[in-house]
Amino acid sequence: MTVAPRIVTVSLNAAIDQTIGTADFAVGEVNRVAWEQSDAGGKGVNVASFLAGFGYPVAVTGLLGADNTDLFVRLFAEKGLTDRFVRIPGRTRVNLKIVDEKRQLVTEINFPGVASRPGDLSTVTAAVEELVRQDAEWFALCGSLPAGLPATSYRDLTLLLKSRGRKVVLDTSGVGLAHAIAAGPDIIKPNIEELTELAGRPLDGEAAIVEAARALRQHGIALVAVSMGARGAIFVDGQTAVHAAPPPVAVKSTVGAGDAMVAGIVHAAIHELSLEDTARLATAFAIGALGEIGPRLPPRKEIEAQQAGVMTRWIAT
Description:
The protein is α/β, with parallel strands linked by helices. It has two domains: 1-185, UDP-N-acetylmuramoyl-L-alanine:D-glutamate ligase, CATH 3.40.1190; 186-317, Ribokinase (UDP-N-acetylmuramoyl-L-alanine:D-glutamate ligase). It has ten helices and 14 strands. The strands form two sheets. Strands 5-4-1-8-9-10-11-12-13-14 form a ten-stranded mixed sheet, with helices on both faces.
């Protein structure tokens, strides 16, 4: 029996992540590829894949180029994801990740993606409304906006979903994020650069970061999670704030780490975990992704075990 999806992810600018490994990457030189792998990706697709690995029934929707869907169709079948993607003419973009194994650095080259047509957003909105009617509870709106879609796309989807009493998680950037904030998503996960852009000023120190996050909560946002790479993440909820610091880890690839954090936050919210436990679990999700090549997670038991190595502390403000 098919189980109705509890969670839906929306990817308006999905991508194929092509990861290549080099022994010693040199700019301006001829570099030989030691290995390569290609994965169906994009923020929303990654979040869906990670949550499906934790046993949730998940549906995916958004826009896909019709000319290269094979990797996506294979992933959806493997993970048991309900496919509600809208196919449009053209090819889904391929984002290149170059792993420098000597320096343990990853260089990302992201393409803009296939341009959408008038009416494509309406078709995605209809798919979202149908999933609402199927009683999906959580909607994660993730990733950048492709050419052809208005900057208010995520705002409009958020307003629709909030009017239907659904929970909305938002992970985007730029003008799309700026417009959507006012619609009051329940949870947002900006990185420190995105939060700085929203604040319009440098954020020097934890107090400034927490202050900027709290300013966003005035729009009705319950949780702001600010990811800061190797510096960890700051989680702001109500009048409290927690910093989560990961232990030293060997980084194989940064691809999907932020998306893993989003998946961990959703998992924690569904289980109504405390702010500190949410910070610890979401960081463990991100750590798990750092140890994999491409958008993947280790087994669930390993992620849960990694929580013990995450150091948390309350931030006094």
